[in-house]
Every structure is written in C-alpha cells, then in structure tokens.
C-alpha cells in the first residue's frame, strides 16, 4: 500500500503548504526561499524568536530585514499549524554533549512535535546532521508513535542535508547543489521537484536516506581532517623555525595541492559532525582512529594558542600572573554572530588557568548569548586600557585596519591565529 502524496502542482496552487521546523541559521533562509514560490509555515518553539522574525528582524544576519519583511512566510510557535503542511522540513540543531557524544534530543523532540500534528499523506524531511540510520531508525518510530500513522502507508520521510555556510553570502541555499533522498521513489521525485524550485545549482538524488546522511557527515569530516593535518604541520614548522604560511604558499604552487590552512575548528558542523560518524562507526564495531585523531588535534588548538602566547610573554620578561590579555573575536568564524561551539572559548579558559585577566572583544557576538552559553563577558566596544598581549582569533572584516599594537603596552606579545596581520608586528602565528 503506497501513500497518496501531494503533487508539486498542489504546492504551486496553494493547496498544500511547506512547513519548516526550526528557524535558525538553516531553517530561516529555507523558509524565506520557499515562500517565494509556496505557502510556507515557519515554526519555532521559541516564541521570542517568532516575534522577532514576524517584526522583520533576524539577529543571525542570515536574512536581511528587507527580504524578511517582504517574505510571505507565516511564522508561528503554534505546532497545530503543522497539520496544514504537505511537506514538513525539520531543521533543528544536532549538537554534541559535554562528553562529545551526539545529542539527538533536539531532533527527537522535533519529531515528537511533528508526529503529534502530522497529517495523513504528508512527507517529513530531515535536514539536521545525523549519523546514517537516524532518520529511519530513530525518527520514524517517534513519528509513528506520536501520530498513530504508519510510515510507508500513511506518510513518508526524506533526508536532505543542509549545506548552508553561516555568514557566507556567495555559497547560499540557492547556489549549493542539494542532496535529496526519500523513503520511496515518489517521495524522492516530489522532494527533487520541491527543492529544485529554489536551488539553482541543481539536485543530486541519493539512492537511499542512509547514503544522504552519510554524505553530510563525511563532507565535514574530510575538511576536519585536512585542517587537523595543517594544524599539526604548523606545530612542527614552529619548532623548525619556519613560517607555516610560507610553506603552504610554496607547496600550493603544485596544481593538486589542497589549499587548507591551520586554525581553530568550531561551529555547528565541522567541529561536531566527525563525532556523529565516529559514534556510528563504534556502534558497528570499528574504532575510527584517523577521525578521532584529527578531532584530538583540532580540539587542542585553543590551548596551544594560549600556551604559546604565554611562552612568548615569558621570553620577553612579561609577567603572566594577572597580566591583561585581549582576544580579538569570539564567534566560531568570521563575519557572523554565531558562537555555537566556538573554540575561542578554549583560548580563554587556558589563559584563565594561567591567572591572566582576559578581555574578549567581538563586535559581532551578542554579549547576552555569550554570557548565557559560556558564562563569560564579551564586549562590543574596544576598551580604553592597554594590554600585555593580544590574540587575533577571528578574521572579522571589521578588524581590518585595526591598529593592534596601539592597544598594547610597549612590551607586548601578538599571536595571529588567522595570519591576517602584518607579520612584522606579530610574535607568533599558526
């Protein structure tokens, strides 16, 4: 018995709506893009977030106010609205816990909410990053239990991994090829047509949901491992007394040398996804040595930066105890306010372990969110005091032209994490 799915024409005609569950960095751009073509319901449990979006403001900066105010998407915190949807897209975060184990509670909670308001004949699509098998083995049973419906007979599911890069105005939803998958051929066809309406770059039809889930986690795992190699090389080259960037520029003259750089690896994807893949591998009896080795390397870079800064201070005779150090940047990447899984916090904590006084300056970061999530004070304005050391941690465009030495005492240390400062003024860099 097959499910009677809505046609793509029914969405264009307004007979069916598209619902997006989770209106963050991924869900909001998705809802706004779909609303240019279809009736869209944007659902989020956070009533304050819904109120903010309804007023035409997006604090993430992913959708500008003009586009948001012009959007026909209907934002709500009432889950009953999901009953109107022929396709429900789940775009909630999938973080890791304090032990670096995958935390599926947000996607499980979203599945319960969707299940309670699931209409017969609907399709539930997951965009959240998960390990292979989660959609069918974890989410589907929840949907069935909450709805009283049966997958394959009353509703279907799909998986289409998000590929949005926060703060990137070039590689957007519309310009990145979209992977789609479905629990059966008609579902795959419908989702390919639906996403194909908004994604100009084209659609890749994965042969199964598990393949699509796996594709997502290995994209970021591959990047994580390449950056880990660069980080290890930067440590080696520092001990050899040669500059990492010089080496990479020389090696990069070969056509097939990959242009990766060392750095802090945080955020909601690259610093998280490898742990999802690793746990999946361990559950199936394989110890993923290379993946976890890369994670250990990257997870240790914040402490490395702090320790190297302290070493350079000691070499210059600068007292470390109660010294004043400023960190420039706190978000997990440049030119966006996203502080999720930022590795700058590791620099901060390591410096505090040395009993340093640490000021964190970031014009992008929301101080209230930083305080709530990490318990630290982040300032949006430069302090007037002078510092013993500065760590340029994030390459915000707003930092371009900043006279870093002017922030510092006569005897000082500058560590340049992203290699954006004039090398003549820095003491160390990755």
Sequence-ordered SSE layout with sheet pairings:
Blueprint: H1 8-12, E1 17-21, H2 27-34, E2 39-43, H3 47-54, H4 65-70, E3 74-76, E4 85-90, H5 105-116, E5 123-126, H6 134-147, E6 156-159, E7 178-182, H7 185-196, E8 203-205, H8 209-240, H9 244-251, H10 273-283, H11 289-299, H12 301-315, E9 324-328, H13 344-353, E10 357-361, H14 367-374, E11 378-379, E12 387-392, E13 408-416, E14 428-429
Parallel strand pairs: 1-2, 1-4, 2-3, 4-5, 5-6, 7-8, 9-10, 9-12, 10-11, 12-13, 13-14
Antiparallel strand pairs: 6-7
Helix pairs in contact: 5-6, 8-10, 8-11, 12-13
Summarize the structure.
The chain is of the alpha/beta class.
Commentary on this structure:
The longest helix is centred in the middle third of the chain and has 32 residues, at 209-240. The N and C termini lie far apart (59 Å). The model has no long low-confidence stretch (mean pLDDT 94). The chain has three domains: 8-205, Rossmann fold; 208-299, N-(1-d-carboxylethyl)-l-norvaline Dehydrogenase, domain 2, CATH 1.10.1040; 300-429, Rossmann fold (3-Layer(aba) Sandwich), CATH 3.40.50.720. The chain has 430 residues and is an alpha/beta fold. Helix 14 (367-374) links the parallel strand 10 (357-361) and strand 11 (378-379). The strands form two sheets. It has an eight-stranded mixed beta sheet with strand order 3-2-1-4-5-6-7-8, with helices on both faces. Strands 11-10-9-12-13-14 form a six-stranded parallel beta sheet. The protein is elongated. The chain has helices at 8-12, 27-34, 47-54, 65-70, 105-116, 134-147, 185-196, 209-240, 244-251, 273-283, 289-299, 301-315, 344-353, 367-374, and strands at residues 17-21, 39-43, 74-76, 85-90, 123-126, 156-159, 178-182, 203-205, 324-328, 357-361, 378-379, 387-392, 408-416, 428-429.
């Amino acid at each position: 018995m097959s499910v009677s799915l809505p046609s793509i024409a029914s969405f264009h005609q307004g007979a069916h709506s598209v619902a997006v569950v989770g209106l963050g960095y991924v869900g909001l751009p998705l809802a706004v893009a779909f609303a240019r073509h279809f009736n869209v319901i944007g659902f989020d449990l956070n009533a304050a977030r819904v109120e903010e979006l309804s007023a035409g403001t997006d604090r993430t900066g992913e959708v500008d106010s003009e586009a948001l105010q012009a959007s026909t998407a209907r934002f709500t915190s009432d889950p009953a609205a999901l009953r109107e949807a022929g396709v429900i897209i789940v775009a909630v975060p999938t973080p890791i816990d304090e032990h670096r184990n995958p935390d599926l509670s947000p996607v499980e909670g979203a599945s319960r909410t969707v299940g309670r308001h699931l209409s017969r004949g609907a399709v539930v699509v997951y965009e959240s990053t998960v390990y292979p098998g989660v959609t069918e083995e974890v989410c589907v049973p929840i949907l069935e239990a909450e709805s009283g419906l049966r997958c394959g007979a009353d509703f279907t599911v799909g998986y289409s991994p998000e590929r949005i890069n926060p703060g990137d105005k070039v590689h957007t939803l519309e310009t990145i090829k979209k992977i789609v998958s479905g629990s059966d051929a008609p579902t795959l066809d419908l989702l390919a047509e639906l996403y194909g309406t908004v994604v100009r770059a084209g659609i890749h039809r994965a042969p199964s949901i598990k393949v699509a889930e796996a594709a997502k986690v290995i994209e970021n795992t591959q990047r994580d491992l390449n950056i880990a190699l660069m980080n290890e090389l930067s440590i080696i080259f520092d001990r050899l007394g040669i500059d990492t960037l010089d080496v990479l520029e020389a090696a990069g003259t070969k056509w097939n040398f990959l242009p990766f750089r060392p750095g802090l690896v945080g955020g909601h994807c690259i610093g998280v996804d490898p742990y999802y893949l690793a746990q999946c591998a361990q559950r199936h009896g394989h110890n993923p040595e290379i993946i976890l080795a890369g994670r250990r390397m990257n997870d240790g870079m914040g402490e490395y930066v702090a320790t190297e800064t302290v070493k350079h201070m000691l070499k210059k005779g600068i007292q470390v105890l109660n010294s004043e150090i400023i960190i420039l940047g706190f978000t997990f990447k440049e030119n966006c306010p996203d502080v999720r899984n930022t590795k700058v916090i590791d620099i901060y904590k390591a410096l505090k372990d040395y009993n340093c006084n640490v000021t964190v300056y970031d014009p992008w970061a929301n101080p209230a969110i930083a305080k709530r999530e990490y318990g630290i004070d982040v300032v949006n304005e430069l302090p007037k005091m002078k510092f013993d050391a500065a760590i340029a941690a994030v390459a915000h465009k707003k930092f371009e032209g900043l006279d870093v030495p002017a922030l510092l005492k006569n005897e000082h240390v500058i560590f340049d994490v992203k290699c954006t400062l004039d090398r003549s003024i820095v003491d160390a860099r990755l």
